[in-house]
Amino acid sequence: MLPKRFKFLTTAFALLLAAQVLLPGHSSAAGKVIEQLPTPEWSYMLPDGLSFWGTIDTLQSNKRMFIPLLKTVTVSPSKKKTSGMLYASIDRVQGSANWVYDYSDMANDQPFTAHGLYSVSNGYTYVYKKKGGIPYDLTAVDPNGKRKWTKTITDSYSPLLLDNGNISIRSGLSVNTKTIAFTEYNQDGKQVSKLKLTGKWATGILELLPNGYVVHTLLDKQNKVLGINVYRSLTALTTPLATYIAPKTVKDPYFQVHPLRGGSFLIQMSSTDTRLLLGYDANGAKKWVRTLNKADQINTTGNNYLIKSDNVYRLYSKDNQLLGKQQIGEAGDREWYYRITPSGEITVEKQYQWQERPAVIDPETFEGDIAKEDFYVLDPANLQIKYHLATSWHDYETGHNYIYAGGGELYITRSYAPKTITKYMLK
Predict the structure, then answer these.
(1) Cα–Cα nearest to 41, from 100, 99, 91
(2) Under 8 Å between Cβ of 275 and 293
(3) Is the pLDDT at 47 greater than 60, yes or no?
(4) Contact, 388 vs 34, CB < 8 A?
(5) Please, where are the H alpha helices in 75-186?
(6) Residue 347 in contact with residue 375, Cβ under 8 Å?
(7) How far is the CA of 164 from the CAs of 4, 119, 185, 186, 262, in angstroms?
(8) 244-283: per-residue pLDDT in tens?
(9) How far apart are alpha carbons 234 and 236 in whole angstroms?
(10) Which three-class secondary structure state does DSSP give residue 269?
């Protein structure tokens, strides 16, 4: 049997819920077992010609969500054209579209025109769109879906949304001047700051983080990575908050910095044979070092950090204290996908778990083919299971996006060309 079938049907989907038990290896936390989804709070269907696109990374803001859309238009009797350069503001309470902002140019856009969407908690959004390469337009959209301002940016990389709601543009590196610049704009389009750097700052990699911290990768005379400096902000580049130099035995190290709430941060060093995680407090003092396995994945939620090893999840505090451990599925099962939601909670899911095919099956509907989908919500404080959905779907209804907003608020769409989004409140 094929691992999945792609059948685009317009019939409304129906949940068939299977009885569920915790799989072997789980912690003893029972969580909230959902044997039947509650009555939907609402269900919203897009108009003809539009479908949701990329809902797995839906951006949530207060009582609305911003979802990228895909539109298809007929340009001639034999030709259609699609664009993903538009998005909808969906009212999470009423289940309707507040507005749709369309920044496409169907006549001139190319299939791979780079573009992006960023949202702020107060309802503002930013979109950028490259004009073939450089330059590109950066536009701010207010909470009512109206364009606030547009700036044409030249010689620049992609924007960075800061935790304060402003947006920063990194410009350079210019071949002639060998300078790098950071320009920050607020939501009114006012330039808050602009800093040009030359000399040592134009070598290595200079990265601005959403919380304002600055990471500078240090190179030797042969342009090989030595270590990194971490600075508190672009206005405090005189003295590093912290410096880490890789051991001489480590070849070709690569560094990542993970900010935590309150100013603490983690430095992750990776190489072909060595992986370390180092914890620092808000004053830049190194507090602990942990050796990582090659397959470990690191992520943060609030003031804690998560290590995923295959399908085993471990949660640690900023002080490196174990807060919880959870295994999802059979030992060694690597087919689980996890993400940390905007609410800071951890979701884990696995789809297309095809069940044994019955002896007799309808060749037209394939209603005998059943696939199971598991969706977990883990508590970001201790990894205890808060919710577990174990749903079963007929062949042509398989594949969904689960959008979890916290507090039991769950949205479900189909995975392929979805036109409908449905809200549930898990209890």
Answers:
(1) 91
(2) yes
(3) yes
(4) yes
(5) none
(6) yes
(7) 43, 12, 11, 9, 14
(8) 999 999 999 999 999 999 999 999 999 998 999 999 999 9
(9) 6
(10) strand
